[in-house]
Amino acid sequence: MMGHSHALSGVVGWMAIVPLVQGTEFWGVRFDLGPGEIIAGSLVCAGAALIPDLDHKSSTITQTYGFVTRALSALLNWMFGGHRNGTHSLLFALLMGALTQVLALWSPLAVQIFVFLLIGIAMNGLGFGMDKNRTAAEIINALGTAGITLALYTSGTDYSWIGLAVAFGCLLHFAGDMATEMGVPLLWPVSKYRVGQNIGFKTDGKIERNVVTPMLTIAIILLSVYLFPWREILPEA
User: Fold this and answer.
1) Other CB atoms closer than 10 Å to residue 201's CB: what's the count?
2) Which phi and psi angles does 32 have, rounded to 5°?
3) Helix segments in the chain, DSSP class H
4) CA–CA distance, 216 with 13 (Å, rounded to integer)
5) Where, by residue number, does the polypeptide cross the bilayer (predicted)?
6) Cβ contacts of 222-227, under 8 Å, gap ≥ 24
7) What is the pLDDT of residues 77-128, one digit of tens each?
8) Intra-chain end-to-end CA distance of the chain, in Å
9) Is the pTM of this model over 0.85?
10) Which of 12, 27, 162, 169 could form a disulfide with 45 if both were Cys (CB 3.0 to 4.6 A apart)?
């Protein structure tokens, strides 16, 4: 799938699991998710849902932070055997989740920086940045990303779940790509068999543009109405 579809799936995926994990504990992480955690998790998941495509030189995430992400893209492409190989495996999702969780345990400041980067990636994926006036779009993206990150920080958002959210975002990416013709090698490097190959729809084809993307957008609206206490937010008439 294209970057915007992956980003949308990250938002939908996180919002969809909130009612299922709320109040539970998983791998030592307690899920007490308020509005801040729901918003933060949605954006973190959206950004993480683009990470596997760092193996492609033209992907949304590779173009997000200029030389830094382009260099990282070249490195991951070399390490994991090209596009839609190792970075699209369960091993990669596990590694990303584990590394992020270690980062969270190591330094709260590092987590805030990583959240800022992921939100910026998510904003690009959702369409805030890839514009005809690239410079203006990047400035707006940076200001919006900084504002959201600061608002989440000042509201005391808890990021103890961030490693799981990043791994989940990667898994959502795999699910999206399994629905396309190329499929993904989930068991790499043990097996290079591509799950979903030659079965699904064409990337950026009519089905993705006219069915998948609109359905994901509608799902975000419906889940927002369900999850957030709008009667408490909006003033009474």
Assistant:
1) 15
2) -115, 90
3) 3-21, 35-48, 67-79, 90-106, 108-125, 134-154, 162-178, 206-207, 213-227, 230-233
4) 10
5) 64-80, 92-123, 135-153, 211-230
6) 223/12, 223/15, 223/16, 224/15, 227/15, 227/18, 227/19, 227/38
7) 999 998 899 999 999 999 999 999 999 888 999 999 999 999 999 998 887 6
8) 43
9) yes
10) 169
